[in-house]
What does this fold into?
Amino acid sequence: MLSKSIQDALNAQVGLEAASSQAYLAMASWADIQPGLQGVADFFYQQSDEERVHMLKLLKFINERGGFGVVPELKQPIITFLSLKRAFEEFLTHEIKVSESINDLVHQALQEKDYATHNFLQWYVSEQIEEERLARTLNDKLELIGEDKSGLYLFDRDILNYRAQVARGGK
It folds into this structure.
């Protein structure tokens, strides 16, 4: 059985994962209408789907542990970006925020001796290491590319491969 405080904290994380999904969906939609950024759009559509899966996993866990998973109300995310670089900076900032929230949840679970929740959250800890590394890698690549159009073309073409590279431990 979940304590009320753990249930509330997990539901807050549900909200953060849902907001992440919406933010990445907005990034995908923005990229979708930019000339030559179809790869980036597809990447962010996939990111949005992934965050929704994270949200559902949390909701189901809360309910399985005797709590009540709450579907959150969401605010409108940022829907336009000044540049591709700015969108990816926002992506990294968001992933860092999610990591901090997961770390706070892990700490709370240990404080309350809720080892089942602590164990469940380890998947999220590992996932966030990968997500932050991916976001940093993509930001580093954009920094190297600068305004070079051929570099941006290659970045857009190859972006869907970066996730696989980062998951394998490459950069």
